[in-house]
Amino acid sequence: MAKQEIKLIANNKKAHHDYFLEEKYEAGVELHGTEVKSLRMGKCSIKEAFVRIEKGEVIIYGMHISPYEKGNIFNKDPLRPKKLLMHKSEIRKLVGKIAEQGYTLVPVEVYFKGSLVKVQIALAKGKKLYDKRQDIVRKDMRREAERDFKIRNLG
């Protein structure tokens, strides 16, 4: 089989910062109207998106697909919940891990695989949320120490 071309549309950097990503899964997205045209133009954001399993179906909330500019009444609500397409065995496996081990589902990437739109979701455990200012101060202190060390060794 020929390898299908993958074109990245959106990446969720916030997910990498806030969570430890364990296992990744690929799911199709059920789209309506002119949403595919907007995705082809790269108008998608999953920064604030999250995934839930309800009644045996995987649904993504907060995935913003901007309305197609040349669209008309067929444009859908940009923030409407979208159903993700996965096999029932995969969904049952995810439900078990979420219930037993305290994982959550986080969307990581949206991309075209051939002509299909796919979302990569990950089983994730939350990191301890911390103040970024502390990290910045720590990096600055380390940088200053390295500069002093260089100056002393060169001079």
Strand order of the largest sheet: 1-8-9-2-7-5-4
Helical element count? Answer: 4
* Largest sheet entry: 7 strands, antiparallel
What is the mean pLDDT?
Answer: 85
Q: What fraction, in percent, of the residue positions are helical?
A: 25-40%
Structural class of the helix and strand makeup? Answer: alpha+beta
Question: What does the radius of gyration come to?
Answer: 21 Å
What's the number of extended β-strand segments?
9
Shape: extended
Low-confidence runs (pLDDT<50, min 5 residues)? none
Strand content: 35-45%
Cα end-to-end separation: 63 Å
Order of helices and strands: EHEHEEEEEHEEH
How would you explain this protein's 3D organization?
The chain has 155 residues and is α+β, with helices and mostly antiparallel strands. It has helices at residues 13-18, 35-40, 88-101, 132-154, and strands at residues 6-11, 19-29, 44-45, 50-54, 57-61, 64-65, 82-85, 104-113, 116-126. The strands form 2 sheets. Strands 1-8-9-2-7-5-4 form a 7-stranded antiparallel β-sheet. The radius of gyration is 21 Å and the shape is extended. The protein starts with 5 loop residues before the first strand and ends with a helix.
